[in-house]
Amino acid sequence: MKRAAIFLLLACWSAAYAEPEASPPVERAKTIIQSDYGDFDYKTKKGIFEGNVVVNDAQVKLKSEKMIVYLAEKDNSVTKVEAMGTVEIEQQGKTAYADNAVYNKDTGIILLTPKPGGERPKIKDERGNIVRGNEIVINRIDNTMKAVGRVELEYTPGRSGSFFSTSTNAT
How distant, in Å, are the alpha carbons of 46, 68, 76 from that of 41? Predict the structure, then answer.
């Protein structure tokens, strides 16, 4: 019985991540970007947003002073995002703070770094726990996080759950 349950679980999991069969196109959630200024270069496939940048997306919310968005040549999908100046990223119950953030869609990596002499990046969860490092790497694909360089964790025992809600590492 236990083997049958495990097999059923694996079958359902595999089906959830398998290539979908041909089906009608699904409307994707919109991403809304607001800023004081926007410059778009259709030849280089690059958009620059400056001043009070706010991004609202189904998966992530971002605020910064400046943001550069790079698009794919073939389909205009986002390939890379660079955010600079008081960056704040909200995602999955956690908020990241940094001077700079770079997201690479192919790798799923978000790299948080300070400006020279700036405050170290940090991530705060909904329970108030905080992790800091000289650099923080978030992998959105495998849901891991790595803090590098004089890592500091502020953790309050006794609160329900833990800072690392899934298979997340801090080294």
Answer: 5, 11, 12
Closest CA to 59 of 20, 25, 89, 87: 89
Residue 57, phi then psi, degrees to nearest 5: -140, 160
- pTM comes to 0.74
Burial 108-139 (b: 16+ CB within 10 A, else e): eebbbbeeeeeebbbbbbeeebbbbbebbebe
Instruction: For 3-27, write each residue's pLDDT tens digit.
Output: 333 222 223 332 333 334 455 555 6
What is the Cα–Cα distance from 111 to 100, expressed in whole angstroms? Answer: 8
Number of CB atoms found within 10 A of residue 39's CB: 11
